[in-house]
Amino acid sequence: MAGGPEALRALLRAANALLQQRRYRAALAVIKGFRNGAVYGAKIRAPHALVMTFLFKSGSLKEKLKSIAQATYAHSRNLAYFVFTYKGLMAAQARLQGKKIPFHSFFAACIGGWLVFGDNNPINSQIIMYLLSRILFGLARLAVDKGYIPQPRQDPFPLLAALVWGTVLWLFEYHRETLQPSLQSSMTYLYDDSEVWHDLSDFLIYNKRTDSK
Fold first, then answer.
1. Which end of the chain has fewer CB atoms within 10 angstroms, the N or the C?
2. Are 78 and 124 in contact (CB under 8 A)?
3. Where along the sequence do coiled-coil regions lie (predicted)?
4. Going by C-beta distance under 8 Å and a sequence separation of 6 or more, which residues neighbour residue 168?
C-alpha cells in the first residue's frame, strides 16, 4: 500500500511526459477533440433540453428527465464523433500531402457531416439550422471583405430582421408544417395559445387550464 501514491505519481509523470511529445501531437489532438466535443455538446444541449421539455412537453417527471438525458447524450455523442472524425481526417491529409491546405478543412468536415449528422432527426436538424444561419452571415461578411459585393451604406440588419420575421410568421400562419417542430411549439405558445382563455387563472397565471371546467 505504501507504494500506491508513489506509483500514481510516477504514472502521472509518464502521462505528462507523453503529452509533451510532438510526434504524438496530432493523435492526442484527435483524442482531446473527442473529449471537448462530448463536454461541449452536453453543456449546450442539457439546459436547452431542460427548458424546452418542461415548457412544451407533457408526460411524467420520469419521462421528461429521460427525454432530457437522451437529447443531451445524442448531442454530446454527435459532436464528439464529428470532432474526432474531422481532426483525424485533417491530420491524415496533412501527413499525406506534407502540409495543410484550405481544401482539407472543407473535405474533412463534409465527410464528418455526412457520417455523423446525415441522419435527419430533430437534434441534427437543429444543429444544421443553427450552423446555416451563421454560415449565411459569414459568407455575406466575407463577400464584402473580398469586394465581391459593395459595402452597405447603411446597416442592413433592420431590413434583414423585417424579412426574417415576416417570412417566418407567414410560414407559421399558412404553412406551419414546413417549420421545425420545436419552432412550431414555440410559436404556438406565443401566437395561438395567447388567444385562448377561460378566466383569470389561464389568462395571467397559467397558459392552459388543467381542470375540466
1. N
2. yes
3. none
4. 179, 183, 187
Pair 129, 123: CB distance under 8 Å:
no
* Closest alpha carbon to 45 in 66, 69, 65: 69
> Which among 95, 86, 153 is positioned nearest to 117, based on CA atoms?
86
What distance in Å separates the CA atoms of residue 32 and residue 3, rounded to the nearest whole number? 30
Q: What is the DSSP letter of 58?
A: -
- CA nearest neighbour of 117 among 150, 82, 149: 82
Query: Quick one: average pLDDT of 192-203?
Result: 85
Q: Could you give the CA distance from residue 44 to residue 51 in angstroms, rounded to a whole number?
A: 12
CA atoms of 17 and 72, how far apart (whole Å): 34
Grid coordinates representing 16 are 505528462
Task: Tell me the torsion sign for CA atoms 16, 18, 19, 20.
Answer: positive
Q: Which residue has the cell 483524442?
A: 31
pLDDT over threshold 50, residue 213: no
Residue 99 CA to its chain's centroid (Å): 30
Residue 201 or 64, more confident: 64
Q: Which residue has the cell 501531437?
A: 25
Largest distance between two CA atoms of the chain: 74
